[in-house]
Amino acid sequence: MNMYGSKVVGWGAALPDEVVTNKDFEARLETNDAWITERTGIKERRMGGTTSSLAVEAAQKALANAGLQPSDIGLLVLSTTTPEQTVPATSGTIQAQLGLTCGAFDINAACAGFVYGLVVGHSMIATGTERVLVIGSDTLSKITDQQDRSTAVLFADGAGAVILERTAPEDNAVLGWDLGVDGSLVPILYCDHGGYLKMEGREVFKRAVLAMVSSAKTAMERAGVTADDIALVVPHQANIRIIEAANNRLGLSMEKTAIVLDTTGNTSSGSVPLALSAAVEKGMVNPGEYILFSGFGAGMTWASAVVRWGK
Ligand code: COA
């Protein structure tokens, strides 16, 4: 058993102001609202801000939600695939803007990155850190060719954050997880320095469903729960059909699944905490119930975790 357990004590999310609708794309690309809605479930998305500005806003909300001060945070973990510079890490900028005095580093596991960050944060708490701020923030619109209809309609900007706090081992709430990557699949989704995202959509779709299903199963097994025990599913928000296909195979209903992609598009690291915040606001989960987080992305990465909710 670990020396300490961890639990979620705060959360927050942030989206840029500019709304870009499917109709807006219709006006400038050879696409239409019906195609985008049917193939992806996305109706609109937000674009603007920077990776750090969105992260800071989400983190400030999480601090307020938890009733904590910047000095209460012992470590900042930023998941991002759109850092502001090659060097230094964007987490440093965020650390300074938030007025934190703790250590900070970036991780990049693409759209699975937030769940990777959650597990890293939990592991740091298990060995003694008191509180970890885990942020997922991305501005994918900056690495997306806005003239390429096959990617422009999918990717957008957003951020979310949670605060993990140390607890007695018997009260531990991060119960089981699975982290993975298949590096042989780099060519199906990547972005070179200074370039734009390139994607083999169909291949990514197929692999994403397989990865989500097997990763979620592993995390649930390790947590000692089954699909029936899960009160809320918080999947990566890439495509409604990927989520439906994975849910079907896992025996999870869409009614208990957090969905924000219709208004956010795919915000990579931001997507899981954005969906979590929206689901909590809607009252979709109660203290003591189990949440299944599941993400997948370029790499090809995947990550799932089962967390007992409670504040
Ligand atoms: N509007 C209209 N037509 C479009 C289009 C758009 N925005 N984007 C692509 N098309 C066209 C293609 O050019 C193709 O035309 P063709 O048959 O004349 O060649 C046709 O639609 C079908 O394309 P295809 O890629 O086979 O469609 P699809 O059903 O696989 O849907 C995606 C495309 C991208 C929506 C789907 O593959 C997908 O969601 N994949 C996963 C992507 C993802 O989630 N990536 C992020 C992972 S973190």
Main features:
binds coenzyme A; Peroxisomal Thiolase, Chain A, domain 1; 4-stranded mixed sheet; alpha/beta; globular; 10 helices; 311 residues
Helix content: 25-40%
Strand order across the largest sheet: 1-7-6-4-5
Overall pLDDT, averaged? 97
The major pleated sheet works out as: 5 strands, mixed
- Molecular shape: globular
What is the end-to-end distance? Answer: 23 Å
Number of helices: 10
SSE topology string: EEHHEHEHEHEHEEEEHEHHHEE
Poorly predicted parts:
none
Tally of DSSP β-strands: 13
What's the CATH topology name of the largest domain?
Peroxisomal Thiolase, Chain A, domain 1
Question: How would you describe the overall organization of this protein?
Answer:
By secondary structure, the chain is of the alpha/beta class. The chain folds into two domains: 5-170, 3-Layer(aba) Sandwich (Peroxisomal Thiolase, Chain A, domain 1), CATH 3.40.47.10; 173-308, Peroxisomal Thiolase, Chain A, domain 1 (3-Layer(aba) Sandwich), CATH 3.40.47.10. It has helices spanning 22-28, 33-40, 51-66, 90-98, 113-126, 149-152, 201-223, 240-250, 261-264, 271-281; strands at residues 5-14, 18-21, 44-47, 75-79, 103-107, 131-139, 157-167, 174-181, 189-190, 198-199, 230-235, 290-297, 301-308. The strands form four sheets. A five-stranded mixed β-sheet has the order 1-7-6-4-5, sandwiched between helices. The chain has a four-stranded mixed β-sheet with strand order 8-13-12-11, with helices on both faces. Helix 7 (201-223) runs parallel beside helix 8. The longest helix has 23 residues, at 201-223. The mean pLDDT is 97. Bound molecules: coenzyme A.
